[in-house]
Specification:
Blueprint (H helix, E strand, L loop, with lengths): L2 H12 L2 H9 L19 E3 L2 E4 L3 H12 L4 E4 L8 H4 L24 H12 L3 E9 L6 E5 L1 H15 L2 E3 L3 E8 L2 E9 L2 E6 L2 E4 L5 H5 L4 E2 L6 E2 L2 E4 L3 H10 L3 E9 L2 E10 L6 H9 L2 E2 L2 E2 L5 E9 L8 H25 L7 E5 L10 E2 L7 H5 L7 E5 L16 E4 L11 E3 L8 H7 L2 H21 L8 H10 L7
Parallel strand pairs: 1-9, 2-3, 2-10, 3-6, 10-23
Antiparallel strand pairs: 4-5, 4-14, 7-8, 8-9, 11-20, 12-18, 13-18, 13-19, 14-15, 15-17, 16-18, 21-22
Helix pairs in contact: 3-6, 3-13, 13-14
Bound molecules: flavin-adenine dinucleotide.
């Protein structure tokens, strides 16, 4: 899809729904009468060095890194809080460490920097399990870090504030102003109106690649994963859940860590639903429920995932609207299932859902380099590495050679054909097998730090992302605590 097609689609979704619905039912092509020409508007301007779009897993770290590098930084977030999919989607943060057991090599923490700082601050407020080592399961060879999702939102918000980031929550990125291959401004909308945020450098951390798409970048929409709306289930008993799964000889994953202030407690548990009661297993299958959960509290399952495969890309509004309803119906069925079958969950209730469904991939943005499956499993490093990463969600099927790490090269974050736009998070890496590694939270956080620091350096040097001297970026990242393995 190109920019014109995308802008046209965005407009047609946003206005005149009745006439467009009628147009969609007709077989004849739409005429001018089916459209409304939006009058041009004069927008107030704000000026920054760096604008980061999306305050999720990668964006929080990107904006913090840019501001700490001295850039006047704005962060645009649609929701009322930072955190993104890390606080809404999955089970735990994967992973700060390499996969070491399979190869009998040294266990190493390979992601540090701002990502680790978030965990350090969460530890102080009882908001994380700490780095909990898996003792069983397909990912037994790893460390998972469970978080209290609400504390994560607060801690990251405070860090952004302390770094001096101009945090615009409840503000949506709706367009981009471009000049040839350069992004001039991000157009944002909030209840204060529509504004143009001009900047020298931009970072897209929207997961959907909204800024890149508005700016005219090339992209595809693979729609190759299920979407999800996970629930936080409260008034439950984690130890009884553990007993329920283990008494059926069904435990597939286990990790122990800090929980409700005590160490060495179960903080992650998964089971083979097939081995549980047939009625439970059948219904879990019907509603797409994965029973893996992590927690940092005795009476709370932080995430129970309900998955759904969409017929169209999650950028399709009407497809998503149907899915939102279906997922909420299934969530209600999930609670009933837990209440009926799982000891300790008789009075369980939903304490948290995601405000909108979560995706594992939306748009795939074309960057200067596309990290391949071989790059990941052969543990390749590059002459422009910005971080090291050593976890694979498909282990042990796909393992990183010798329990080592691969590098994320700076060029993999540079949006192709655009001078001053970087991308970080789930929107990079086309090969699904490689994406099963790079899309993990901790990798996204590391990418965010690199992209934010690079954007700030580019702004300070008044240069495009391709003119930045790699030694300068590496030096800045190393000083900020980033670990390099090459
Ligand atoms: C169901 C599920 C389970 C997962 N399980 C795990 C797991 O166990 N371990 C693991 O490590 N990873 C897991 N992942 C993967 C990981 O969570 C994601 O890949 C990662 O968090 C993505 O980070 P991101 O920064 O790219 O996107 P996000 O964290 O989603 O951030 C995007 C942000 O941009 C904002 N935004 C979007 N569009 C706009 C706009 N137009 N204007 C303003 N703001 C906007 C969003 O509100 C959001 O805050 C899971 C993912 C899902 C969906």
């Amino acid at each position: 899809m190109n920019r014109r097609e995308f802008s046209h689609q965005a407009l047609t979704l946003a206005i005149a729904p009745a006439s467009l619905a009628a147009a969609a039912r007709r077989t004849t092509p739409p005429t001018a009468a089916d459209y409304y020409n939006e009058p041009p508007k004069k927008l107030p301007i704000r000026r920054f060095d760096v604008v980061v779009a999306g305050a999720g897993t990668a964006g929080v770290v990107a904006a913090t890194a840019a501001a700490r590098q001295g850039a006047k930084t704005a962060l645009i977030e649609w929701k009322g809080y930072p955190g993104g999919t890390a606080t809404e989607g999955g089970t735990a943060l994967h992973s700060f460490y390499n996969l070491w057991k399979e190869f009998g090599v040294q266990k190493r923490q390979v992601v540090r920097g701002i990502a680790q700082e978030i965990i350090d601050r969460l530890l102080k407020v009882g908001g994380t399990s700490g780095h909990a080592e898996m003792s069983k399961g397909f990912n037994y060879d790893s460390v998972c870090t469970a978080i209290d999702t609400e504390m994560y939102k607060l801690v990251t918000f405070e860090m952004l504030d302390e770094a001096g980031v101009f945090v615009c929550v409840n503000t949506r990125l709706v367009d981009a102003v471009t000049d040839g291959s350069r992004v001039r401004a991000a157009v944002v909308e909030s209840r204060s109106g529509r504004e143009a945020f001009f900047a020298k450098s931009f970072v897209d951390c929207t997961a959907y690649g909204d800024l890149a798409a508005y700016a005219g970048a090339d992209y595809t929409e693979p729609n190759d994963y299920a979407v999800c709306n996970s629930i936080g289930l409260a008034n439950v008993d984690v130890d009884k859940y553990h007993d329920f799964i283990s008494s059926n000889d069904a435990v597939t994953q286990l990790a122990a860590g800090l929980r409700s202030g005590r160490d060495a407690q179960t903080v992650r548990i998964d089971g083979s639903a097939r081995k549980l009661l047939p009625e439970f297993a059948r219904e879990a299958g019907r509603i797409g429920m994965s029973i893996v959960t992590t927690t940092v509290h005795d009476n709370y399952f932080m995430f129970i995932k309900i998955n759904l495969k969409l017929p169209k890309s999650p950028t399709d509004r009407d497809t998503v609207a149907k899915a939102e309803l279906e997922l909420r119906k299934r969530q209600a069925r999930a609670v009933r299932l837990f209440r009926k079958f799982v000891p300790g969950c008789e009075k369980a209730f939903i304490a948290r859902t995601s405000p909108s469904l979560n995706i594992r991939r939306g748009r795939l943005i074309t960057c200067d380099y596309d990290i391949s499956h071989e790059d990941v499993i052969d543990a390749r490093h590059f002459d422009d590495d910005v971080m090291a990463y050593g976890f694979h969600d498909s282990a042990p099927r796909y393992q990183i050679k010798n329990g080592g790490t691969y590098g994320i090269p700076y060029r993999a974050l540079r949006v192709a054909n655009i001078e001053n736009l970087l991308a970080a998070g789930m929107m990079i890496t086309s090969d699904r097998r490689a994406h099963m590694s790079t899309r993990n939270t901790v990798c996204c956080m590391g990418q965010g730090q690199a992209a934010g620091a690079a954007a700030a350096l580019c702004a300070a040097k008044n240069c495009g992302t391709r003119d930045l001297k790699y030694p300068d970026l590496r030096d800045a990242l190393a000083k900020a605590g980033v670990y390099f393995d090459s």
